[in-house]
Amino acid sequence: MGPPIGDPSRSPIRAHQGSVAALAFSPDGKTLATVGGDETDPTIRLWDPGTRETIAEPIRHPGGATSVAFSPHAQLFATGGYAGTVRFWDPDSGTPVRPPVKHPGGVMSMAFSPDGRILASAGFEGSIRLWNVATGGQIGDPLQRGTGGIARSVAFSPNGRLLASSDDVGAHLWDPESGERIGSPMRHPDGASAVAFSPDGRIIASGGSDGSIRLWDPTTTEPVGMPLSGHARPVTSLTFSSDGRLLVSGGQDGTIRLWDPAAGDPVGGPLAAHKYGVAAVAMSPGSNLLASAGGDGTVRLWDWDSDHACEVADSYVASSQLDPYVPSGWQLSCR
Predict the structure, then answer these.
(1) Could you tell me which residue, 37 or 140, shows the higher pLDDT?
(2) Spatial distance between the Cα atoms of 68 and 290, rounded to a whole number of angstroms
């Protein structure tokens, strides 16, 4: 096998002329979508992660895009923008599949429900809106948090019965069917900028502006264990491995960190990723490839195959320390 993707001997992908604001893998892992984060390159680009080449012409979201999400069935993907529109695209042709829908004030984050029937959008004006993907119609009234500030991120639970969001207060839990908030806000000292469900739905992870990560029980909205501390600046993005045994965080300090959510411990040391902060992290289906987006305009692909998993975690981590977190098909040969 050649040099692993993400190895220091290989350069990062120069994805956009300015910063990269967001990225997402398609459900089959064969396409990676990236979003240009400023006016110098307000495009969405589709990449083949294996060849590191673009597979379509750049897509322009009028007014600039902030976020991207693939439908679980890969029939389409959506982008949200500063101008307050959500647009739906054909991932094969890069062409619109229906008229855009309007989220007043601009879209900060989006997430599809597990069945692909609903898209949730979090807005700069503070609301969360639910959309019928088939018709483009809004479902019910906006979910109003009553706490002010930007609704920064959204995530559905694996069974689709819960929706989590984050804002300047912390994280919130919703019933997407009734639109009612569940339990008390899950508070961060300086608010939360990212939120993610574990694959089994038993844990909500929220990333704070104070650099900490907190774990919560969605049945009680109470904390699970102590905060995970390591980032020197706000946490911008969170993703779980497909088996839930690893939590990955990206921060404005330019590092990616790996965590054992069950033990509440870091796995190895920080991975220096991007010069001007990590804007987003995403794990491919099967969790063999991690993508990170940076304020430096690059995307890095970290291939965790074989003994490169050791390098991702830390050059001095023993294989016995990594064994609990890697897929059973991997054969580690590191120290």
Answers:
(1) 140
(2) 16
How many Cβ atoms from other residues are within 10 Å of residue 111's Cβ? 24
Which class for 9: exposed (0-12), middle (13-18), buried (19 or more C-beta within 10 A)? Answer: exposed
- Asked if residue 210 has pLDDT above 70, the reply is yes
- pTM higher than 0.85, yes or no? yes
Q: Which residues, in sequence order, are bridge partners of residue 216? A: 204, 223
- Counting other chains too, the contacts that 159-162 makes at CB distance below 8 Å and 24 or more residues apart are 159/114, 159/201, 160/113, 160/114, 160/115, 160/118, 162/197, 162/201, 162/218
Number of C-beta neighbours around residue 262 at 10 A: 16
CB 236 within 8 A of CB 252: yes
What is the β-pairing status of strands 13-14 and 298-303?
Answer: antiparallel
Tell me how far the alpha carbon of residue 103 is from its chain's centroid: 20
What element of type H or E holds 182? strand 181-187
Residues across the chain: 335
- pLDDT digits 0-9 by tens, 149-171: 889 999 999 999 999 999 999 99
194: left (phi > 0), else alpha (psi -120 to 50), else beta? beta
Quote the DSSP letter at residue 6. T
Q: How far is CA 116 from CA 195, 278, 323, in A?
A: 19, 28, 34
Joined tokens for residue 163: 């929706």
Q: Which of 292, 303, 299, 308 is closest to 255 using CA atoms?
A: 292
**Per-residue pLDDT tens for 34-74?**
998 777 778 999 999 989 999 989 999 988 899 999 999 87
Distance from C-alpha of 237 to C-alpha of 63, rounded to nearest angstrom: 23
